Amino acid sequence: MNQEYIKPNAWSIIEEGWNPGLVKSSESLFSIGNGAMGQRANFEEQYSGETFQGSYVAGVYYPDKTRVGWWKNGYPEYFAKVLNAPNFIGIDVFIDGEPLDLHKVDKVSDYSRELNMKEGWYERTFIAHFSIDKAVKVVARRFLCLEVDELGVINYQVTAVKGNMKIEFQPYLDAGITNEDSNWDDAFWEIEELISEDHQAFIRSRTNKTNFHVCTFMQSELVQNGEHLQYANHLEQNNKVIRHTAAIELEENETVTLRKYAGYCSSLNHQQYELFDAARKVLTHATLTGYDVLLQGQIEQWAQIWAMADITIDGDLKAQQGIRFNIFQLNQTYLGKDARLNIGPKGFTGEKYGGSTYWDTEAYCIPFYMATKDQQVARNLLKYRYEQLDKAIENAEKLGFSNGAALYPMVTMNGEESHNEWEITFEEIHRNGAMVFAIYNYVRYTGDFSYVPEMGLEVMIAIARFWHQRATFSQKANKYMILGVTGPNEYENNVNNNWYTNYLAKWCINQALENLDKVKDGYDDDYKRIIGLTHLSGSETASWREVADQMYEPIDEELGIYLQQDGFLDKEIIPVEELDSKHRPINQKWSWDRILRSCYIKQADVLQGFYFFEDHFTKQELEKHFDFYEPLTVHESSLSPCVHSIQAAKLDRMDQAYEFYLRTSRLDLDDYNKEVEEGCHITSMAGTWMSIVEGFGGLKIVDDKPSFETKLPEQWDGFSFKINFRNQILHVQVSKSGTEVITYGTEPVDVIINGKEITLQPQLINA
Amino acid sequence: MNQEYIKPNAWSIIEEGWNPGLVKSSESLFSIGNGAMGQRANFEEQYSGETFQGSYVAGVYYPDKTRVGWWKNGYPEYFAKVLNAPNFIGIDVFIDGEPLDLHKVDKVSDYSRELNMKEGWYERTFIAHFSIDKAVKVVARRFLCLEVDELGVINYQVTAVKGNMKIEFQPYLDAGITNEDSNWDDAFWEIEELISEDHQAFIRSRTNKTNFHVCTFMQSELVQNGEHLQYANHLEQNNKVIRHTAAIELEENETVTLRKYAGYCSSLNHQQYELFDAARKVLTHATLTGYDVLLQGQIEQWAQIWAMADITIDGDLKAQQGIRFNIFQLNQTYLGKDARLNIGPKGFTGEKYGGSTYWDTEAYCIPFYMATKDQQVARNLLKYRYEQLDKAIENAEKLGFSNGAALYPMVTMNGEESHNEWEITFEEIHRNGAMVFAIYNYVRYTGDFSYVPEMGLEVMIAIARFWHQRATFSQKANKYMILGVTGPNEYENNVNNNWYTNYLAKWCINQALENLDKVKDGYDDDYKRIIGLTHLSGSETASWREVADQMYEPIDEELGIYLQQDGFLDKEIIPVEELDSKHRPINQKWSWDRILRSCYIKQADVLQGFYFFEDHFTKQELEKHFDFYEPLTVHESSLSPCVHSIQAAKLDRMDQAYEFYLRTSRLDLDDYNKEVEEGCHITSMAGTWMSIVEGFGGLKIVDDKPSFETKLPEQWDGFSFKINFRNQILHVQVSKSGTEVITYGTEPVDVIINGKEITLQPQLINA
């Protein structure tokens, strides 16, 4: 059974009632982030129950020395870990000297959490009963500013609901944090300097090895009835923690609020010696602006995001809540302002998986960012990989490739590979194809070819070189083969001729050749620069072409099916639905060898190819392959349901499409995979967006025109979404009575709506 | 280049000259053991240079919690580690208060080591120069008694070669030892009690988790000119170490000797509360018997071993030294007295690989022990697996098998799997076949069928059940297949239809069926007991038979070659000799994925099948397969050269056979694999023995008769070996003039010599 404690609500994630067993789950679900930093929804005050602490600064990581059972050549020396950063949210509270700790008080009542996605804040409310005569009500709201993304704000309001009492607040900074997933119990951080002055405190820490410097800072104020109260300053400072204090006597029914302004300034954005000054500036800005105005700014910023990114679903509150949660989390994780950053699979909601960048970005996230942001954002994501091309070449060299062949890493922070399962790290090479697909997809969608001569072609060349070298000529078959790979279906390892990989490899080479021609024809300077740089010769491209032309594709002629890999039909083919539920999920119930020799598929593999290259295949072919592979798919990857939802919609299997949609959109809210405690599945959330826009909305680009083939699940009264298509905003509204598309842009747009081509004239935004 | 510092000598391993860079290598090569315990050749006195400490007690292990990079279902929780045991050899020496430490003294001269294999002792000699005026000569000899296998003896003799001086000896016991390969830095041992009384000391320690109790003990005596001197007793005792002391003033050219009797008594052989008493008894025996008599006993014991196990090679000193080193080490490691013990891959020479038992025992070691010991020894080795059948069934259950199917572990101490690479642990299942082959081989060689009804048949049934369940019916091929395995060639992982595995599986099922019939016919009680125990039904055996009858064998019809696995010919087939030497060894130079997709073979795989089942194939078939596979083989496993040497000899390729022989017999002495520092390759030493007896001697059993097809490498003048064939001793002597076989047994023996059948009449041993 999935969990069902989150209350359905169109704009908020709501938990009601105190259940300590849900604390870690809610810490993930109520996480907040602003693209530059983020936190799990840990309590501000002391909590001695089970909790998983997590605060993260985007781009600040630690290369943790690899630890494996048995070393194999080629393993990367380090695994780049998302770092748990110093904690700035802490506010311990003492009531008449007794700590406020929900794990220890007599009783907790009226407990609730709300993550207000519309306005971008998180609030927790509860009444803590210390005895029959003494109780306090707490309303703690916090947000991480979008506008000043080094700033977090906490408004911690306490009311004496029973009895008179002395309340002492101890806001603190704690740099003595660790990672749960440290390999060797290394200290990831060194604390360099602690400063406590007036009402401000600063801790400058440095990451070991990577030498990121981060200044964590805070300033607090005590407010009652709109008045700022005086309060004591420094309480305690050891070598890891700075603790301030502010105490006040409250009579029954009186309220007092501690406001804490806090955050991080890091050496990513400042000179090391300027960190304290930068932090002081943020605090000055914050205190002068004040809580109410900052909150107002936050609401406005989120309103701007929603104006473009929102999707409405009518008549299905859980579906509505699901899609907004996905869109909200994506925007909390990555806003596209900084080309050095990327979209971590857990965003700012947990430390699991480490690394920030997977092929998820190229395969799943780019469409969302292309369609809901300025096209510069998607360009930044592409540029991120271009910047790491040298590292990708080094990575390939470590595995024995040469001549500028590039293998992009499976997981990375800085371009270096940092994953260490050989069957994935060394073999799941299809990721290289996603890099090229993303460029192709970007150009197709935005019409911005300039990226190719400027940066993209170099990436394509390096990847074509990789595929050329990685292919093996089989004398036997008189074909080029790709041996020893893991496809997107990670429940197969070291297989020969994964169809998806082979198909993608061939396509990548052809893309490189085509784009070489285009750049040669239209961008002479760039062409010369690139040829000078890569020493690409005609004989080299001829040998690429040979590999592409003679690439082997595993196929079963009898069934008319591309085979996931050589020998796939030697397996026992038993549909998932015939599997006793006691065996599910197989990744928890079966040993690895049993999974491997089974026919079960973790996530779209052949069908991933049909998704990427929809226009290469007929609907009948899609149907045949969907009918063959989907029944064998266990969807035990978060990336699986979205692709299948899109394809089910294309095949008019609306019930199935709807079911997959719910699964992808409420994966974390309903905890399908029983692991939300560790964090949310951020990158698959972009897949959720695709399942509406590309699935039910049927968006594809046909001859430079957006085409919509809309399908309305019968559970819905209607749905709507917007896309930015080449700087024109299209608003697509689907209801039982039909589909309407409006453009709010500046120019007429040619679109295809359910097969009919029309030219839309721009409307006023508030029309 | 291989190392060449060991002096060729027929009966001894000799090192001459002081080279600190060789200390760790020599610590492995000069290791001593007596089947019950063993030690690396660490120095008795303090040594601050690079060293790898190792003392081991057979059967005493620690289950170290598994550590992997990424957990996969089915991994065993623990890895059973060979334990570094308390050190009893330590004797610190001070010359006028200055420590004798070869890493620190002014100069070391006249340094040599000798491992006298004939007599079973190890001696180190050197002169240590403290200054121009002060030098001592040390002659330190030690041995581990074969007769009283809890006892070790050290004779540490010091002569003042320059100057008068005060010499202080500090014999000690040190229980504060650790393992280099600990996963989590656990303490493997708890020290429970330390006793120091008179000239004796005892430390009782307990292994954590496994609760083995070991009493390490010592007693020392100071001897000069045959007289026992008085000396002080207790010097120091902390919670880990007991240190005694004995000092004497020496004038130039005077000599003094410290004799230390020491050893282990363990709870494997004694009640825990009797350990101290047992240790006292050993010490009483030792001191009453005295050094000279103990040494004489040792020489006699080894003489008995050599009388049966020796192989002579005439005209090739290095080859002679090699084979004796192999035979010596095998006898140091395992003497077959105790069915709870087995043959660790490093014996008592290092801690690498952990575990004591691999399929090496069944595939490589049993023939040696069958032929050079009483047949009870081989029976004990078989019984070891029988005793662990329940664990093998549990092991299979953990991987999802049922109905009493057994999967024997890849590595074990107590029957539980303790290896954790999925591609080996879960997939290298051919090991199960070696268990059955060993039973078959034992019965064929010894004629003792009684083992089958008593124990072996149960093992065969459980293994047949495993293969039956592990096979997959391919609708496509209308055959049973075995998917997702690793064959003996560990440079392939997760392949389908490894020919060796499929062939062995089919053979195992047929063996079980045949032996069921034999037991049914001749051993009614056993048959009933076994059927009652296993609930084996006619329909079950029928379904086994179906799998065996329809087992798929990958073959290339065109080449007439059994394929190592499906798809093998899709690889680029380039002989090893065309590979640039900079790529060798590939396991150090290539990334794992590159190794996997290459055609290169680590050790005999298809050819292992041809070795086991020689009589199933013609010489022409062997030749064809040898010519195809050997050129693709890199022999990067210690188990590889011996099989190839045997097959080359069978094919009359004597140069190749000789080269492989040298490689297997001097693998450690010449350090072919650049890793002898970590210990010697004990189990492959039995392969060396096979390469002479089965290769050059051409021994096989034909219709219950030993048959010899002898071949003399041209580098040799002759060679000879003995075998115990069904309690008759055969002495085979091959020279340039021909082959002579003599029996020293009690009965006439029918033998086949180079195709000619003769009946040998027994001769007197000293004939």
UniProtKB/TrEMBL annotation, chains A, B:
Belongs to the glycosyl hydrolase 65 family. Keywords: Hydrolase. Substrate binds at W359, D360, K602, Q603. Residues 15-267 form the Glycoside hydrolase family 65 N-terminal domain. It holds the Pfam family Glyco_hydro_65C. GO terms for biological process: carbohydrate metabolic process. Residues 324-690 form the Glycoside hydrolase family 65 central catalytic domain. The active site is at E490 (proton donor). The keyword Transmembrane does not apply. Residues 700-760 form the Glycoside hydrolase family 65 C-terminal domain. Gene3D superfamilies: 1.50.10.10, Glycoside hydrolase, family 65, N-terminal domain (2.70.98.40), Maltose phosphorylase, domain 3 (2.60.420.10). The keyword Transferase does not apply. It comes from Nonlabens arenilitoris. Signal peptide: none annotated. GO terms for molecular function: carbohydrate binding; glycosyltransferase activity; hydrolase activity, hydrolyzing O-glycosyl compounds. This is Family 65 glycosyl hydrolase.
